[in-house]
Amino acid sequence: MNEVPPEAEPVDPWFLGEFSCWTMVVLAPILTWINGPSVSTDQFVVRTAVFCLALSGAIGLRVANVVRRRRQSKKGE
Amino acid sequence: MREELLSGCIGAIGWQLVAIPLARRSVVRAEGRAMRRAMARLTTDNGERFAVAGLLGIHTLLLAWGTVVHSPTVDEPMHLAAGIYHWQTGRFDLDRGNPPLAGLVAAAPVLAAGPETDWRNVPDSFAVCVDFWEANGFRTCQLVNLGRWALVPISLLGGYVCYRWARELYGVASGLVALTLWSFSPNILAHGQLVTGDMAATAMGVTAFYLFWRWLLQPTMRRAALAGLFLGLAELSKYVWVLLFALWPVMWIAWRLASRHSPERLTIVREMGHLVLVFAVSLYVINLGYGFERSMVPLERFGDIRRVLANLVGYDEEGGVAACTASVPLPFPENYVGGIDEIAMVGGRPKVSYLRRQYFEGGCWYYYPYAMLVKLPLGTMALLLCAGVFTLMMPLRGFGRSELFLAIGIVAILAFVTRSGAGQRLRYVLPVMPLLLVAASKSARGLTAGRVPAAFVVVALCSTVLSSLWTYPHSLSYFNELAGGPFQGHAHLRESNIDWGQDFLYLQRWLRKHPEATPLGLSWNHPILDPKHLGIEYTEAPAGLLQGCRYTPAQLFERGPRPGWYAVNVDRFRRRTGDMAYFFYFEPVATAGYSIYIYHISMEDANQVRRQIGLPELAASDELPPLRGEPRVCPSRQLSTVRGLP
Question: In what side-by-side order are the strands of the sheet with B520-523?
Answer without folding.
Answer: B539-540, B520-523, B564-569, B596-601, B590-592
